[in-house]
Every structure is written in structure tokens, then in C-alpha cells.
Design goal:
Distance between the termini of chain A: 35 Å
Mean pLDDT of chain B: 85
Largest interface: A-B, 57 and 71 residues
Mean pLDDT of chain A: 85
Number of helices of chain A: 5
Shape of chain A: elongated
Structural class of chain B: mainly alpha
Low-confidence stretches of chain B: 1-8, 100-117
Radius of gyration of chain B: 18 Å
Number of helices of chain B: 8
Distance between the termini of chain B: 21 Å
Largest sheet of chain B: none
Strand order of the largest sheet of chain A: 1-2-3-11-5-8
Number of strands of chain B: 0
Oligomer: heterodimer
Strand content of chain A: 15-25%
Chain lengths: 215, 187
């Protein structure tokens, strides 16, 4: 797998800092599972976060905080492993990174000939996360954006002005993007897409599902 | 900053002492160093003081429980402890329906176990990241902290720093550009 499109440093730093919203963070996590280069960059930003933590002026805790924590050391750790949902029905060979297993995936719904989608529930009312599968060779209408949209390819590939996106590639599209994606002929393309915020999404395919998602 | 980097391996040794021997004195030393800093970080990230106090203690408790998963070839002590606190904060937000836990437990790390030379590689990398951070101006560090760690919108940063919105945007762009250059120089 040759990944050529990575998240911006801004997005990865937000992810490292824990301030990237749930939907985009899930898409970035899917990409990270496939990209050693992005994991290395993330480690840099986590090191940066560690250095910033060292530099922050301390705030005193309650006098008995240490004693109370010491008293809890021998208590058994609560088991908090989330139940893993089985992956949905997907074309063979589709990436299904571990972070996706933590969230329920809805059933596939018909959107247009050759296009199906399903919804992934993340606990953030501002995040919309969907899976799309699109038949090979489909061309989508040209469009711009009025919001940020994150897409990670899980199977197949599409191309637009900014290049070719295959499995593991991450597309981060904002207001400045204006493109006309074409799904490569032959294989079906499966994408994980997060749309963020109250702004109306106009992203690739996002625009098509917008009425269904109730924006 | 440079002097702190010299001290950093001590924290690594403390975590390893917890992993190997359940060393309570090592835990107390880590607690006294990191819990008050985590509390500050959590307050800055928007947690009320009482929750920050609680989460800082929970984070150190997790350090105790997860110490055996700590791999000094993969992360420095401060970075690892930061990540634990970050994930606990995300968990707490999730319980309020505001965010999702994404990061897997350190125990599920998919990366292959690196060779012995990675330890040196990581220490060098950490030193490099610290010196990159140190090469930014105080103003640039502050704007990165506000935008990325405290999650403040640009307009709120402008208000807090008493500078025009355009200056916030250009300062952030310059700071991130500088950081990118510094990080890329060493990779």
C-alpha cells in the first residue's frame, strides 16, 4: 500500500492534543492505522505535547491528593474494553482499521444507482460520519465546499485535481477545494467520510447524502 | 528546556520501576511532578478545576496500571503521560456525549517492537522536537497552545491576546510553518 496523501500538520497536532472532533478523529485514526509516516509525525507531535506539559506552570492539588491516589493503587482496574462491533458487509480486501470496530455501523442504504451509504454513530452531535461505496467509473458533479470534510479511502480509488487517492490515503477538503472526483473504473470505492460542524457540507458525495442526514 | 531534557530519562526510569517492582516511591515522585502539571493542562483545555483535579489523579492511577505497557523506545515519559491524560479527558467528554475515544490502549499498539537502536533514535527525536519547540518565539508557542491545545477559536485568541484576528492567523501560519521546517530538517 503506497500512501501519498496525509493529514495536514495542523490536523495531526489537533489529534495529538486531543482537540480534533470525534468524527474527523475517527477518519484520521483510520488513516494512521495504515500510514507509518503519519504515525511517526504523530509521535513527534505527542513528544511536543509532552514538552509543553513539562513547561506548563504547575497547579497545586488538594493536600491529600497523593495519599488518596496511593490508597487506590491496589484496587483492581475496572474492565473498560468496549464491545467490538463486527465490520459491515464490504468488498473483500477493504481496510477495516481497529478504531472503526468501536462504533456501530448502520445498514447500507441506497442513494443512487451505484452509490450506497451507511452511517457510523460517534458520540458527538457536531460530527457526521458515513461510509460510502461507489461503483467503479462513476464521476461526481463538480462542487465546492463550505465546511471541512475528511475522507479516508478504505478500498478502491478515486482521483481529482489534487491527485489519486487509494486505500489509506486521507483527503482533507476545506473551503478552497473545488473538484470533480472520478472513481477509478473496475473496483468499487469505499470511503470513510466525516463532515464537521453546523456548516452545510458540500464535500464529495457528502452533498449527495446531505438531505438524508438532515443537515 | 535543555535542562529538562537532561532530566527526562529519570521519569522514564520511574515508570520502569513501577512496571518492574510496583515501586510506590517512584509513583509518588511521578505524581508530584506530573499531577500538578496535568491539572494545569486540563484546566487550560477547558475542564473545571474540580474535574481537572480528579482527572489528573485518574491519569496517574492509569500510569500505575499501564506502566508495564510503557515502551521507552516508542515514547518519552512526558509524551506517554500526556497521551494517557488526553485519552481520559476524551473519555470524560464522551460520557457527556461530546467526543469519541479514538486512541487504542497502549496495550493494543500495532507497531512492531523496534530494535534496540530505536531507543537512541527516539531520544534523539525527542531532543529534536524539544529544540524545535524551543526555537519558536514565546508568542508563537503561545498561539499554538491556544489554538491546538486549548481549542480556542481564532476570534477568542485575538481577544485574549489583544491582537487583530489577521495577526492571529498569520502568527499561527508562521509558527506552524517554522515548526514544519524544523521537524522536517531532521527527518
Amino acid at each position: 500500500m503506497s500512501i501519498t496523501h496525509h493529514p495536514s500538520d495542523e490536523t495531526l497536532l489537533r489529534y495529538a492534543a486531543g482537540t480534533l472532533a470525534a468524527g474527523p478523529a475517527l477518519v484520521v485514526a483510520a488513516h494512521l492505522a495504515a500510514s507509518p509516516a503519519s504515525r511517526a509525525r504523530l509521535r513527534d507531535f505527542e513528544a511536543l505535547a509532552g514538552a509543553m506539559l513539562e513547561a506548563v506552570p504547575p497547579t497545586a492539588l488538594a493536600d491529600d491528593a497523593l495519599a488518596r491516589t496511593l490508597a487506590r493503587l491496589d484496587a483492581p482496574a475496572p474492565a473498560v474494553r468496549p464491545a467490538m462491533a463486527p465490520p459491515p458487509d464490504l468488498p473483500p480486501g477493504t481496510l477495516w482499521p481497529a478504531p472503526l470496530g468501536a462504533y456501530p455501523v448502520g445498514r447500507w442504504r441506497f442513494l443512487a444507482p451505484g452509490v450506497r451509504w451507511s452511517r457510523i454513530e460517534v458520540p458527538d452531535p457536531q460530527s457526521r460520519v458515513i461510509l460510502m461505496r461507489v461503483a467503479g467509473g462513476m464521476k461526481l458533479p463538480a462542487h465546492g465546499h463550505s465546511g471541512i470534510e475528511y475522507t479516508c479511502v478504505l478500498a478502491g480509488a478515486f482521483s481529482d485535481d489534487s491527485g489519486r487517492y487509494g486505500p489509506g490515503d486521507l483527503a482533507e477538503e476545506d473551503d478552497d477545494t473545488d473538484h470533480q472526483p472520478l472513481v477509478e473504473p473496475g473496483a468499487e470505492c469505499v470511503c470513510l467520510i466525516a463532515m464537521q460542524g453546523r456548516t452545510r457540507p458540500h464535500g464529495w458525495l457528502g452533498r449527495l447524502v446531505q438531505p438524508l442526514l438532515g443537515f | 528546556m535543555a535542562e529538562r531534557a537532561v532530566n527526562a530519562p529519570d521519569h522514564t526510569a520511574l515508570i520502569l520501576a513501577i512496571a518492574r517492582n510496583g515501586d510506590r516511591a517512584a509513583f509518588a515522585a511521578l505524581f508530584q511532578h506530573f499531577a500538578p502539571r496535568l491539572k494545569s493542562y486540563l484546566i487550560r483545555a477547558g475542564a473545571p478545576a474540580a474535574s481537572a483535579e480528579e482527572l489528573a489523579q485518574e491519569a496517574l492511577l492509569s500510569v500505575w496500571r499501564k506502566a508495564s505497557y510503557f515502551d521507552p523506545a516508542k515514547a518519552g515519559a512526558a509524551a506517554w503521560i500526556f497521551s494517557i491524560a488526553r485519552n481520559l479527558r476524551i473519555d470524560a467528554l464522551r460520557r457527556q456525549g461530546r467526543a469519541a475515544r479514538i486512541e487504542p490502549d497502549p496495550s493494543d499498539e500495532p507497531d512492531a517492537v523496534p530494535g534496540a537502536d530505536s531507543l537512541l533514535g527516539l531520544a534523539e527525536r525527542e531532543r529534536h522536537v524539544r529544540s524545535a519547540l524551543g526555537a519558536l518565539s514565546a508568542e508563537q508557542r503561545r498561539v499554538i497552545e491556544l489554538a491546538f491545545f486549548e481549542d480556542k477559536p481564532h476570534s477568542a485568541i485575538a481577544q485574549e491576546l489583544g491582537i487583530p484576528l489577521g495577526t492571529v492567523k498569520s502568527r499561527l501560519r508562521l509558527a506552524m510553518g517554522r515548526l514544519r521546517t524544523l521537524l522536517d530538517d531532521a527527518s
